[in-house]
Write a structure and sequence with these properties.
Length: about 500
């Protein structure tokens, strides 16, 4: 939800995960590349709905195990009229924020169709703690399959609790990024419970080596001209030469304000460095010119034009000096004193199993899911066609799975989980109706989703020039015409799904 595990774990937005310590790498402090949907900023004077709780099963696939836990959800019935539809926003790999109950495109749809709105927090994230801690043994109950079964149980629960039992009442699911995948998969696995699904920016195909992520990043940077990628490549080559000597290594540590000395005796430290520097550009590309500003997110004014402008401006010095200036800009923007680069510190932080640890904010849980279900490892294995170096390869990501969770979490185990996910949900061969798949052309995650219609009844909406989950945010006067049209198309589809059979 994603190269190095850096990009796997970059699902954590700063607006959601705010308490990570300096022992963890900077990408865990809030510059995501996969893209957890951000936490909206509440309208002035508004009051969010309170936490609600239901007793949930620990496992839905072993009836002899009767253990339960408390799962959090939210409800907004402000727009509801009797026999109106049920809208369900699916929580993902971070804390569910009740502000989404008052903001976003889906709320506009709810107003139009007089829907009651629910948001269910994903198990193991936020305040929804199924087990005493996050040990490997306890994480066995964290999976997309369990999350889908949670949704099925939740729907039955709220229908009874809120008297939503009319046979004419239909249900629509919504989700963005990993929850977008869940929205589509829920329609595949539980079609009798859901009448339509919006699956925004949803990676549908699980893949071990997601090297194509950088392919989209490179293409997006190239929209500013050939200079940006060329200058990044020159900077990367210079760093590579510098870290081969003690003097050069110390200069790199100073230029890029590393928190700890760079230990080049461990390839993982060097891999972390190049991965984090690439992350400065990956995150900007993924969220380029989106409308996260409404949610209180920071850094939204930094665009592809901003960072490539720095890289192409010769008055900023040599290419490596410009590369360092981009890094300084990102550190300053996200209030980071230095660039966390120590591999050992990163692993130690992610090995923590307590619910009050910084890793429990989502990093450890999502890493487990990628190491057991999805892969999604954004590697540098494209080779010389990308300018960030070939240091954060697939081996680097797999090493992190093994170092955090144990030696058995090797490539073979990861691939088995990926194969199961694609067999279970269909991958690109998914068979389903009444799902819409919006994706942005700038968002690298569109590569693992549907950009062409799955069928006449399950269309794709490929939005040129937009970023990750852009259609889910509130509209602004600056929205591209194609984004405006995408929201209108989704609204019309929902209306069709809600029409009497």
């Amino acid at each position: 939800m994603a190269a190095s595990m850096k990009t796997v774990l970059n699902l954590v937005l700063i607006s959601v995960l705010v308490s990570f310590t300096s022992s963890l790498p900077r990408f865990l402090h809030g510059r995501p590349k996969h893209g957890l949907l951000g936490a909206p900023k509440l309208p002035q004077g508004s009051v969010p709905p309170p936490d609600m709780w239901l007793k949930q099963k620990l496992t839905h696939f072993n009836y002899a195990d009767t253990r339960t836990w408390q799962q959090r959800y939210f409800v907004n019935d402000t727009f509801y009229k009797p026999n109106g539809p049920i809208f369900l926003m699916i929580g993902g790999e971070g804390t569910a924020n009740p502000a989404w109950m008052l903001q976003g495109a889906w709320i506009e749809y709810a107003k139009k169709y007089h829907a009651i709105c629910f948001l269910l927090e994903h198990r193991y994230y936020g305040k929804s703690h199924p087990t005493p801690d996050l040990s490997v043994d306890n994480l066995q109950f964290l999976s997309s399959e369990q999350a889908l079964a949670d949704l099925a149980y939740f729907i039955q629960y709220v229908k009874h609790k809120y008297n939503l039992m009319s046979k004419d009442q239909k249900l629509i699911t919504f989700g963005g990024s990993y929850p977008g995948s869940l929205s589509a998969w829920f329609r595949v696995k539980y079609p009798h419970l859901v009448d339509g699904a919006v699956a925004t920016s949803a990676p549908i195909f699980a893949q071990l080596n997601f090297k194509e992520y950088l392919q989209v990043v490179v293409s997006s940077l190239a929209t500013t001209g050939p200079g940006c990628n060329k200058n990044i490549k020159m900077a990367t080559d210079t760093i590579t030469k510098m870290i081969s000597t003690d003097t050069g290594r110390k200069n790199v540590e100073k230029m890029f304000n590393l928190c700890d000395p760079l230990d080049t005796s461990q390839y993982v430290d060097g891999s972390n460095l190049f991965s984090n520097l690439a992350g400065n550009f990956e995150g900007v590309v993924q969220y380029n010119k989106d409308n996260r500003a409404f949610e209180g997110a920071i850094g939204t004014n930094i665009t592809i034009d901003t960072i490539c402008g720095i890289m192409n401006d010769e008055s900023n010095g040599s290419p490596i000096e410009r590369y360092a200036k981009v890094n300084s800009l990102m550190l300053s923007t996200y209030s980071q004193k230095c660039l966390d680069n120590s591999y050992n510190k990163m692993i130690k932080g992610l090995q923590a199993t307590a619910w009050n640890s910084s890793a429990s904010e989502g990093g450890r849980q999502w890493m487990y899911q990628t190491c057991t279900e999805f892969g999604f490892f954004q590697s540098s294995d494209l080779g010389d066609v990308q300018p960030f170096g070939n240091f954060f390869n697939l081996k680097f990501s797999i090493q992190q799975c093994m170092d955090v969770f144990g030696a058995k979490f090797n490539q073979e185990l990861i691939q088995m989980g990926i194969n199961r996910s694609n067999t279970n949900y269909g991958g690109y061969g998914m068979k389903a109706t009444k799902i819409v798949f919006p994706n942005g052309s700038i968002d690298p995650w569109h590569f693992l989703g549907f950009t062409k219609d799955l069928s006449a009844e399950s269309p794709a909406i490929y939005i040129q020039g937009t970023a990750h989950c852009a259609n889910m945010y509130p509209a602004t006067s600056d929205d591209l015409p194609q984004l405006v049209q995408a929201r209108a198309t989704i609204e019309k589809l929902i209306g069709t799904w809600l029409s009497p059979n």
